[in-house]
Design goal:
CATH architecture of the largest domain: Sandwich
Strand order of the largest sheet: 1-2-3-4-5
Number of strands: 30
CATH class of the largest domain: Mainly Beta
Largest sheet: 5 strands, mixed
Distance between the termini: 41 Å
Helix content: 10-25%
Strand content: 35-45%
Structural class: alpha+beta
């Protein structure tokens, strides 16, 4: 479900340059010294990276990302770049290049030095890079205020069915102005949306137009709704989340955090999900216990929420933290939160980049998944959708006699299975690193790589995840590097 957010982009690199060799390769490519390659149609070199393996063998991993003219033979281009790179990098090197031609999906070519294998994978989940186009200017959102208690009708006449009711002070989004029944000397009726359908209110009951800046509304931390005989909800912040193992239908979860207060002296008052409604560009979204239960499971701090059945209750004179979550589309012009009979337009700071939001959330949630399986501390997690790869580094499991390589291997296999079972990392390479504590001859301690394992996509798909203990990681890994003192 996430692939629609990915585009061919350059820049996200998760490896450190091996200074000398990396500079030579990068210099040759970036400065256009590879004449033969540029004659084959290279348009731009978007990334070059060289990483030295931590096994003392002098072996390297070389990554290149580039764009070529449409219609070029990318396989021949990849082979040429590999041959040229072999002349610069020491002869023990794996080579990976992703080539995009601006029209079709990019292709990932990978040569594994140890296994002496070659593979080519079309990155179907990605759209080719597009030239920037001028986006049409957004239309202003017209918001008006209800001047008194008013019936909203199914058509522009007092004889039409009542579709709903508004009270003085309610804010409505105007979707049209129409001619209708003559009332109070005017035939002008205001059209708005109510429960997903057009509704009409006579203009005498509605204020003159006010066109707020987009996003319209009050800053989140200034919004207060309810009170009186009801609970008062004071919002504190809004968050936008995309959790990899919590499928949402509309794009993301909009989570509003705040505080519920009961100003009464004695009575215990409860609030339920049906009391809270969110209108995004006029469309109604309601919170459900299913959505909020999913959100609660993955929050760092457990916070109660306004549920459907039991709701959330607060004793007289007390207050409690809360949140309400909506399965929402990405980026809207106007948001209106409705609680009981009151409404407030919200100024939501929608993330500008859906891709960055997605990748950031993926990395956070992969970290949670790894942390659940690994006994040692997780130090780094990176999701690189363009490569595509998932990298995770954690401290190796320790036993009575030192580091337990077998137990760490099982952790790595289990993490691979968990990631595979999510169903969104198809075609990804997994790179797992186990860290160890090192002490040099001067007694100085540091943290270094104990073992690094590479699992290719086709291998991951064949792992017998129902028998993790029976998987021989050394045999199935495309690359298995381990310190000599751990073997």
């Amino acid at each position: 479900m996430f692939s629609r957010y990915f585009r061919v982009i350059s820049g996200v690199i998760w490896v450190l340059l091996a200074a000398t060799v990396g500079a030579q390769v990068a210099g040759a490519l970036y400065e256009g010294q590879l004449t033969a390659a540029y004659e084959m149609g290279v348009v731009s070199v978007d990334m070059v990276s060289v990483t030295e393996m931590n096994d003392g063998s002098g072996r390297y991993m070389v990554y290149v990302e580039l764009t070529v003219d449409p219609g070029r033979n990318t396989e021949d281009m990849a082979s040429l770049l590999k041959d040229i790179t072999d002349g610069i990098v020491p002869d023990q090197a794996d080579f990976s290049v992703i080539i995009a031609d601006g029209e079709s999906a990019p292709v990932s070519y990978y040569w594994n030095y140890i296994a002496d294998t070659y593979s080519a994978t079309v990155l179907e989940g990605f759209a080719p890079a597009q030239s920037p186009t001028e986006e049409p200017a957004e239309e202003a959102v017209e918001v008006r205020t209800i001047l008194g208690n008013a019936n909203a009708r199914s058509c522009a006449a007092t004889t039409c069915d009542v579709a709903g009711q508004f009270v003085a002070g309610d804010a409505i989004r105007v979707t049209g102005v129409v001619e209708g029944e003559l009332v109070s000397g005017s035939t002008v009726w205001i059209e708005t949306m109510l429960d997903g359908a057009p509704a009409y209110i006579h203009s005498s009951l509605v204020s003159e137009p006010r066109t707020p800046d987009v996003p319209a509304g009050t800053a989140i931390d200034e919004v207060v709704l309810g009170g009186g005989e009801h609970l008062e909800l004071a919002l504190a912040r809004a968050e936008f989340r995309v959790w990899l193992d919590r499928e949402n239908e509309n794009g993301l979860y909009l989570v509003l955090f705040g505080t519920l207060s009961n100003e009464s002296a004695e009575d215990r008052v409860c609030i339920h999900a049906e009391d809270v409604r969110l209108f995004l560009d006029g469309d109604l979204y309601t919170p459900t216990s299913d959505v909020m239960g999913k959100v609660q499971d993955l929050l760092e701090d457990e916070v109660d929420y306004i549920g459907e059945n039991n709701g959330q209750c607060v004793d007289g004179g007390e207050s409690a933290e809360t949140f309400v979550a909506f399965d929402a589309p990405f980026g809207v012009d106007e948001a209106v939160l409705e609680l009981y009979d009151g409404q407030e337009a919200l100024a939501l700071d929608w993330p500008e980049d859906a891709e960055a939001l997605l990748v950031g959330d993926l990395e956070r949630d992969v970290r949670l998944l790894v942390d659940h399986r690994a006994e040692g501390d997780v130090s780094e997690v990176t999701v690189a959708p363009f490569t595509p790869a998932v990298l995770a580094t954690w401290h190796m499991r320790e036993g009575w006699s030192g580091y337990n390589v077998s137990a760490t291997e099982q952790e790595m296999v289990q993490v691979a299975c968990d990631l595979r079972d999510l169903g969104i990392f198809e075609g990804y390479r997994f790179v797992f690193t186990g860290e160890v504590n090192l002490v040099d001859s001067y007694g100085v301690t540091s943290v270094g790589e104990g073992m690094t394992v590479w699992l290719e996509a086709d291998t991951i798909g064949r792992i017998a995840c129902d028998n993790v203990g029976g998987v021989n990681l050394r045999n199935i890994a495309s690359s298995y590097d381990i310190r000599a003192d751990l073997q």
